[in-house]
Amino acid sequence: MVIVKHNTEIEMTGTSDFDLAKTFECGQCFRWNVDKHSVNAGDELTYIGVAHERAVKLRQRGNKVFITCSQEDFESIWRNYFDLDRDYAAIRKHLCVDDYMQQTTDFGKGIRLLRQEKWEALCSFIISQNNNIPRIKNIIDTLCQIFGDSLRFENNEYHTFPSVTRLASLNTSDLAPLRCGYRADYIIKAAKAIANDEINLDEIAVITPDKARTALKILHGVGDKVADCVMLFGFHMLDAFPVDVWMKRAVANHYGPDFDPEIFSPYSGIAQQYIFHYMRNG
Predict the structure, then answer these.
(1) Which of 121, 141, 144, 167 is nearest to 29 (CA)?
(2) pTM across the whole model
C-alpha cells in the first residue's frame, strides 16, 4: 500500500483488501454511513463515521481510498483503527481450508476488522442482542445525539459516543427515547460497573480469551455471543468467534456438530466475518 498526503486528504493506493462498503456494512460496526452530503461521481463511494471523538470521511475510487484527516491523525489513529498494516490477502489464503471458505473469502474480499474503542464495542453489542442492524444503528445514533458531545465536520453536526461516566450518571428511564427495551438496564448497569471500577476493560483486553470472556460475562446481560463480539471488535482478539443464528446455520450446513473454529486459528474471528457476510448476503 502506498500512502500519499494531499491538502486535506490522505490517499491510499493499492488497497485491494479494503472495500469500504464491505467493511462498514458487514455487521461489525454501526456508526458509519454513506455520506448524504456528497455527490458521488462514477464509481466513487463515500462514507462518514465517528470514532475516537473525531468525525472522518473516506471515499473510494477503484483501488484507491482517500481519508479526510491530518497526517498526524492518520498515523496516530486511523492507520491502527483500519488495521492497515495487516496483510489480509495472506489471511484469506490461510483461511481457505476448503471450498466453502474459498467462496466466503472471495465474496468478502475487502473486509478489514476495525479496532473499535472498547466501551463503544461493549455498549453497541449489548444493544445488538435480538436486534437487526438498521434498528441497532438507529438506537446508537439516538444515544449519541442525546448523550454524546457535538462535533462539527464539513459544516455538519455529528456526535461522539457517550462516555462511561456520562451514561453511568443516568437511570434506565433516561434512555426511554432510545426505545431499546430491556437493553437500557444492561447499558446502565455496564456503565456503572465500569465507572465504579468493578470491571476494567483495558485489563481484560490483555488477558487470555477464556478469562476475558468469563470477566465480561460478569456484566448483567452479557452472554457468550456479546462477550465474543466485544473480544473481537473491541479487544481485537482475532481468535474470538461470535456465534449468532447466521453462524449457527453456516456451521450446521457446512461443518456439522463437531466443528471447532480452531481450524481457522489464529484468524478465527476474521473467518467469522467472511462467513457472516457471505451468509447474510450470498
Answers:
(1) 121
(2) 0.94
Q: In what order do the strands lie in the sheet with 45-51?
A: 2-5, 9-13, 64-68, 54-61, 45-51, 32-34
Where are any strands of DSSP class E within the chain?
Answer: 2-5, 9-13, 32-34, 45-51, 54-61, 64-68, 150-153, 156-159
Q: Which residues of 61-91 are buried (b: 16+ CB within 10 A; e: fewer)?
A: eeebbbbbbeeebbeebbbebbbbeeebeeb
Q: Give residue-wise pLDDT tens across range 204-257.
A: 999 999 999 999 999 999 999 999 999 999 999 999 999 999 999 999 999 999
Task: Tell me how far apart the alpha carbons of residues 132 and 63 are, in angstroms, rounded to a whole number.
Answer: 31
CB 275 within 8 A of CB 24: no
Contact 91, 270 (CB under 8 A): yes
